[in-house]
Amino acid sequence: MTFVVDAKRAELVLDAILDRYRRGAYPYNLRKSMLDGFEFPKRLKRGGEAEARFWFFACMLMRGGIDSDTGLKAMVEMYDQTMGRSGPRPFDPRYARKMDPLLLTGLLGLKKTKEEEPTLAIPGLEKVKPPDQPDEPHRFAIDWINSAKIVYEQFDGKALQIISQIRDYDDAVRLIRNTGKSGFPGFQYKMVSMICFFWIETGLLQPLLYPPPIDFHFNRVAVATRMVTRTGRKKVLSVKSGELDAFQGVLREMYLDYITLRGYSTNEVADAVWLLSRTLCKNNPGNSSSVGEYAARATVITPHQVDMLLNGSDQLQFERSCKRCPVRSQCELNVPNAHYYKLGRIETSERIDDTPVEHLFKVKD
User: Fold this and answer.
1) Which residues contact 56 (CB under 8 A, 6 or more apart)?
2) Which of the four pLDDT bands, split at 50, 70 and 90, describes residue 71?
3) H-assigned helices in 116-265
4) What's the CA gap between 151 and 175, in Å, rounded?
5) How many CB atoms lie under 10 A from the CB of residue 319?
6) The predicted structure's pLDDT at residue 287
7) How far apart are CA 121 and CA 116, in angstroms?
8) Predicted model pTM
9) Of 146, 329, 347, 348, whose CA is between 20 and 30 Å from 290?
10) What is the DSSP string of 99-158?
């Protein structure tokens, strides 16, 4: 069974989203971009090499299972704690390449090595390439240090030298994506797009045509509105963990085709889709779940049973999300995030699209 793109439906759905986004109507009157409200590190000098390096290392967190807002806030805190003259300076390749992996593991909050060291808890990071033994450094810390070595050895320690060699998306993939022989540890297509997004958003890289960073939110909007389906399946769609790479490859092409067709920038399409999922889909009562004690792929997840008749919370959440969504009429499925972040797969259920008490609530823009 293969994944199938409905190009006309994709145009219909994305046109409606981008129209709402460009007009700044709800929910985009609350937040216009991924960086709205973002507080940069106090120690960071904006607009040059230091900022280019900050985004390079921060994007290492943009792996599956880690919420981007949480990860970025953690990186800001870590930057301010560690980039003083007497600090270990993990965001500077000249110093990071020589760091003790156990020290960096402690700085990331993955293992506490000394009481006086600053520690940082990043939810979800502990499940990214966990060490085989308790006394080993975290794989993420090793990747960080090895990436710093590559920047130092191949780009004179400067992230701006990477940027200077990027003329198009193919260049970005060639320079950044890890192939085993080139690129940086842990960087795959999503992270290549993510680092392009932040470098472009902050004016460090000239705008270019590239696919948006396909994460859970891009998955959810595409699946819920049935822009992508699969052959031989009924209405409810699931994507197993072993199918995610192929599925997200299809989404990259679909979103890029739309961006090319309409002439929009990737960054505005990325902001529009990402924020729709983060502000509206997130509050859809059908996307709620209860998560049991963490047990890797055996973690028990129980979907919330929506009751629009008797549950006032469900009714209010519906009013704040689905009822006011620009693609309500095209959205057919619930796509909760718990299965994706905890189990590495996508599960869906049919979405309830009415409430008998709609008239009781009036939520202002």
Assistant:
1) 147, 151, 159, 162, 195
2) confident
3) 139-154, 159-164, 169-176, 189-201, 216-224, 244-262
4) 11
5) 18
6) 86
7) 15
8) 0.88
9) 329
10) --HHHHHHHTTSS---TTS-----TTGGGSS--SSTTSPPHHHHHHHHHHHHHHHHSTT-
Burial (0-12, 13-18, 19+ Cβ within 10 Å), 208: middle
For the residues 102-125, what does the mean pLDDT come to? Answer: 63
Residue with tokens 């390096």: 53
Residue appearing with tokens 């963990």: 241
Structure tokens that stand for 3 in this block: 């994944």
Q: Work out the angle at residue 124's Cα, subtended by the Cα atoms of residues 121 and 125, and round it to the nearest 5 degrees.
A: 65
Q: Which residue has the tokens 């299809």?
A: 250
Half-sphere exposure of 156 (CA within 13 A, CB side): 6
Which residues, in sequence order, are CB contacts of 234 under 8 Å at separation 6+? none
Contact 301, 292 (CB under 8 A): yes
Q: Give dist(CA 267, CA 274) in Å, integer.
A: 10
